[in-house]
Amino acid sequence: MGKFETIDTDGKTVRLYAAGDFATGSRGVGVFHPWWGLNDDVIAYCDRLAGAGFSVVAPDMFDGQVATTIEGAEALAKGADEEQINVIALSAADRLAERLGPSATLAAVGFSFGAHWAMWTPTQRDSVVASVLYYGTTGDGLTEASVPVLGHFAEEDPYETAEWVAEFEATLKSAGRDVMIHRYPGTGHWFAEPSKDAYVAEASDLAFNRTVEFLRQ
């Protein structure tokens, strides 16, 4: 449904997956991939959002590298240049805003590793008016933006424990943020990614439908 494009970020060419009709004034969504990289799961998710009526871009934050093992993904995440990814994230948001026109409103969706940028981007761009997180949190920018937050979290998750998620939610609420957190029984980290053993179709579909409803609001 979509296609790959490129954007220039401080002299570096970066891949960007784009899906949707990009009609002027339509709703735009930036999707930030998990530590696996911009893989087929993320691409399929972008296509699904496009099918729901959104214009979607997903920047490749790992320069084309994709991991299939936890060890490989850990290496990609640890080797990532955060400052460079910041530039990539903002360049993707700017490309989306440029294509949709000055009246467009954007949202940011982040999976795990990408959740940080889903929370951070609205602090840098006023056009980004909502954040959606899949089993990922961040300690940065919680009080710097005022946009609403929707979070999808697993019941059993060593990467994002119930205590950490509760603290994250409490911090957002104490800062006056509009936040809605959902926990999905019988799930673990990566429950919304079809290629992973942890995938739970029912929970993934429910999270997706809740995301679409949230973004349309």
Provide the succession of SSEs: EEEHEHHEHEEHEH
Q: Give the count of helical stretches.
A: 6
The strands making up the biggest β-sheet line up spatially as: 1-2-4-3-5-6-7-8
Shape: globular
Please state the second-level CATH architecture.
Answer: 3-Layer(aba) Sandwich
Please name the fourth-level CATH homologous superfamily.
Answer: Alpha/Beta hydrolase fold, catalytic domain
Q: Would you tell me the overall average pLDDT? A: 94
Computed Rg? 16 Å
Class computed from helices, strands and strand pairing? alpha/beta
End-to-end distance, in Å?
Answer: 25 Å
Helix content: 25-40%
CATH fold annotation: Rossmann fold
Regions with pLDDT < 50 over 5+ consecutive residues? none
How much of the residues is beta strand, in percent? 25-35%
Description:
The chain is an alpha/beta fold and 217 residues long. The chain has a single domain, classed as 3-Layer(aba) Sandwich (Rossmann fold), CATH 3.40.50.1820. The protein is 37% helix and 26% strand. It is built from six helices and eight strands. The chain has an eight-stranded mixed beta sheet with strand order 1-2-4-3-5-6-7-8, sandwiched between helices. Helix 1 (40-51) links the parallel strand 3 and strand 4. The longest helix is centred in the middle third of the chain and has 19 residues, at 82-100. The chain is globular and about 40 Å long. The mean pLDDT is 94.
